[in-house]
Amino acid sequence: MTAIAPTKQQANPEDSISLPLNTDQWISATWEKFFQILENPTHAESRCYYDKNQLRQMKIETIPVSSKQALDNGIIYFAIADLEEALKLSREKSQSEVGAWILQKYSHDS
User: Fold this and answer.
1) How many CB atoms lie within 10 A of CB 43?
2) Each residue of 69-80: pLDDT tens digit?
3) How far apart are the C-alpha atoms of 90 and 96, rounded to whole Å?
4) What are phi and psi of 20, to 5 degrees?
5) DSSP codes, 10-67
6) Are the CB atoms for 70 and 64 separated by under 8 Å?
7) H-helix or E-strand spanning residue 3
């Protein structure tokens, strides 16, 4: 699968597809149709994907990234980093020492 960002330059805006489009789901499309849709300024903020291998399908995601989603992603990133650190510690320290490290890390008293 290939992910492609929308192009900034547009040769002919009137040539780009402006009909209503099924978004946020995979639909059949040729590479040419997909590229023509990318040129439409309406999809400038969308995430666009094209499966060029066997299915010849495209997907235009129009769901905006909100601050809540960004915050959730940040929380997940730090949780995974802390889990990796706890796993590393578990190879060197006892279970109670790793538990104490986790409690200290997430204690709101300090």
Assistant:
1) 19
2) 667 777 888 888
3) 10
4) -55, 140
5) -S-GGGS--S----SS-EE--HHHHHHHHTSGGGTTSEEEEETTTT-EEEEE-PPPPH
6) no
7) strand 2-4
Question: Does position 98 have pLDDT exceeding 50, yes or no?
Answer: yes
Structure tokens at 73: 């992603």
Residue 53, token pair as written in the block = 């291998």
Q: What are phi and psi of 59, to 5 degrees?
A: -145, 130
CA distance 26 to 102: 43
Helix (H, G, I), strand (E, B) or coil at 109: coil
pTM of the model: 0.40
Q: Which residues pair with 46 in a beta bridge?
A: none
Q: What percent of the chain has pLDDT over 90?
A: 15
Q: What angle do CA 35, 31, 22 make, to 5 degrees?
A: 70
pLDDT, tens digit, 9 for 90 and up, residues 31-75: 888 888 888 887 777 778 888 776 778 888 776 666 676 677 778
Q: Report d(CA 26, CA 35) in Å as an integer.
A: 15
